[in-house]
Design brief:
Helix content is 42%, strand content 21%. It is α+β, with helices and mostly antiparallel strands and 103 residues long. A 3-stranded antiparallel beta sheet has the order 1-2-3. A two-stranded antiparallel sheet has the order 4-5. It starts with 11 loop residues before the first strand and ends with a helix.
Length: 103
C-alpha cells in the first residue's frame, strides 16, 4: 500500500517491528488477534493476550497462536527477562574463568 493511498478492508501490512496488521471496517487491527478470535470463535476478552508458540510474530498459522491471560503474559515476560539475565551472568563467569586460567 502506497503512503497516502486509502486502504481497503482486508488489506494487510507489516510494521517495522514485524507485526502484521489487517484493515477492518473499524480500522487497522493486529492480524494475530484476528486469527486468535477466529480460532476461538469469539472476540478476545479484555484480560486476554495473544502469544506466538514459536516466538515468531510472522508465523500467523493458527496452530502457532495461543491465547493467554494478561497475568500469564506478565509472568512469561518476567521469566524471559530472568533467563536472559542468567545467560548474561553465565557468559561473564566463563569470561572470568578464562582470565583466571590465563593469569
Amino acid at each position: 500500500m502506497a503512503r497516502g493511498t486509502k486502504s481497503i478492508v482486508g488489506e494487510t501490512m507489516v510494521s517495522k517491528n514485524n507485526y502484521h496488521y489487517t484493515r477492518t471496517e473499524t480500522g487497522w487491527v493486529l492480524t494475530h488477534r484476528l486469527v486468535a478470535e477466529e480460532k476461538l470463535g469469539r472476540p478476545l476478552a479484555e484480560n486476554e493476550r495473544v502469544s506466538f508458540v514459536d516466538g515468531n510474530r510472522t508465523n500467523l498459522d493458527p496452530s502457532n497462536i495461543i491465547v493467554i491471560t494478561k497475568r500469564a503474559a506478565s509472568i512469561r515476560k518476567q521469566i524471559a527477562k530472568h533467563k536472559a539475565k542468567i545467560r548474561e551472568l553465565q557468559a561473564q563467569v566463563v569470561a572470568l574463568e578464562r582470565q583466571l586460567k590465563n593469569s
